[in-house]
Amino acid sequence: MMSTGKLGVIADPKLRNKILVLYSNLSLLKELLFQNNEFLMPIDRSLTADRGMAKFLETQKPVFSLYISEEAVYELKALKPELESDAANWYWAVKDVLPAIDAQLLELREMIAEVDHYLKKGKNN
Questions:
Q1: Does 22 reside within a domain?
Q2: Rounded to two decimals, what is the model's pTM?
Q3: What is the rounded CA–CA span in Å between residue 104 and residue 123?
Q4: Quick check: is 39 in a domain?
Q5: Which of 9, 83, 104, 124 has the fewest CB atoms below 10 angstroms from its CB?
Q6: What span, in angstroms and rounded, lies between the C-alpha atoms of 44 and 55?
Q7: Residue 82, domain extent
Q8: Is residue 108 in some structural domain?
């Protein structure tokens, strides 16, 4: 409704405002995810590209002739602190975001049901 400009079909100002607030909250969550990604990707890039970790990942197996399991890579003592640090960074970056995503999904489902009810009510009048 926001992208098509059809928010005006909702005559109820309270419902229209709830939709705008939900849209704003989703935009904020999207920005938070983007910022986390911008912070963490250089660290991941350093491990995968600069340190050659990509050749050890199963998903990269077709590209590289050398492949060992991720568990074996973890045991490489020299990389262990960096891998642990990277994992910790990802953990803390998503720890608070995942509940926010769940909350937004619940709110979105409720909003869809509310709009659906509103539209069906309008058709019956």
A1: no
A2: 0.59
A3: 28
A4: yes
A5: 124
A6: 14
A7: 28-113
A8: yes
